[in-house]
Amino acid sequence: MEKIRKSEEEWKAQLTPEEYHVLREAGTERPFTGEYTDTRTVGVYRCRACGTELFRSEAKFDSHCGWPSFFAPAESEAVVLLEDRSHGMARTEVRCATCDSHLGHVFEGEGYPTPTDQRYCINSISLTLEPAEG
């Protein structure tokens, strides 16, 4: 997978200020405000910054946390997981493997009835949804 590298000025020109804040500055959108929180559309979720396929609708589930939740990425190589000790917490950050944009966090062991017992809690603003044809 070829990496995408741009200057911060190029990212600022490509993204809205809100997108830039989340994707490039590891911000978080307010819960229950994102366009994909309750979406049930069948399709592929891609990185808003670079278009890489990240998640599929088949892995999306209702976690009632305020952000879209997935139990697994489309491909394990699509995302990178990093230790995040910001805000006095120990979490695992999820980033796009292609462009290094911040997507959200992944949590384990919360007891959701999913195949992986993982919750990829992803900012809607980090994604675009490509609906399935048909």
TrEMBL record:
Species, as recorded: Actinomadura namibiensis
EC number: 1.8.4.12
UniProt remark on cofactor binding: Binds 1 zinc ion per subunit. The zinc ion is important for the structural integrity of the protein.
Gene name of this polypeptide: msrB
GO cellular component, one term: cytoplasm
Record keywords, A-Z: Metal-binding, Oxidoreductase, Zinc
Domain MsrB, first and last residues per copy: 8-132
Name assigned to this protein: Peptide methionine sulfoxide reductase MsrB
Gene3D superfamilies, per database record: Peptide methionine sulfoxide reductase
MF annotations from Gene Ontology: peptide-methionine (R)-S-oxide reductase activity; zinc ion binding
SUPFAM superfamilies: Mss4-like (SSF51316)
